[in-house]
Design the sequence.
């Protein structure tokens, strides 16, 4: 930065402070020669999708839950959760997210009736998938 530009910046800060400027006047001066301002972007929010391979199964019949994880690192373990009463209970069915963000897990259920399931990792959960066990 040349000397004249530096003096002009210091003068602008001083005038701003005398005129009742905010603490933002203390920020480091930007390089006036850049072509585009930099914009900070927030990290992508993590999300999960889920789809069951069957909507109705016999007790203990195997089916799959598949989906895509976005904003979640490859290798992260996803857990199947089942709604039991008012609580979500983690089942002993886990699967890792692959390098493209996809996942698939095999599930067997023994509780007859409509079962509400979801995939979870940390505080990120998928939409609920319903599977009826007959």
Sequence:
């Amino acid at each position: 930065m040349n000397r004249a530009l530096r003096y002009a910046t210091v003068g602008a800060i001083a005038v701003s402070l005398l005129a009742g400027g905010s603490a933002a006047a203390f920020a480091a001066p930007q390089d006036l020669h850049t072509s585009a301002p930099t914009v900070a972007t927030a990290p992508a929010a993590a999300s999960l999708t889920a789809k069951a391979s069957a909507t109705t199964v016999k007790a203990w019949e195997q089916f799959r839950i598949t989906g895509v994880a976005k904003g979640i690192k490859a290798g992260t373990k996803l857990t199947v959760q089942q709604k039991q009463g008012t609580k979500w209970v983690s089942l002993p069915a886990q699967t890792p997210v692959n390098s493209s963000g996809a996942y698939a897990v095999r599930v067997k259920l023994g509780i007859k009736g409509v079962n509400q399931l979801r995939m979870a990792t940390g505080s990120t959960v998928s939409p609920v998938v319903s599977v009826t066990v007959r």
Notes: Residues 5-19, 21-28 have pLDDT under 50 and may be disordered. Residues 29 and 61 are 66 Å apart (CA to CA). Residues 3-18 form the longest helix (16 residues). The two ends are 76 Å apart (CA to CA).
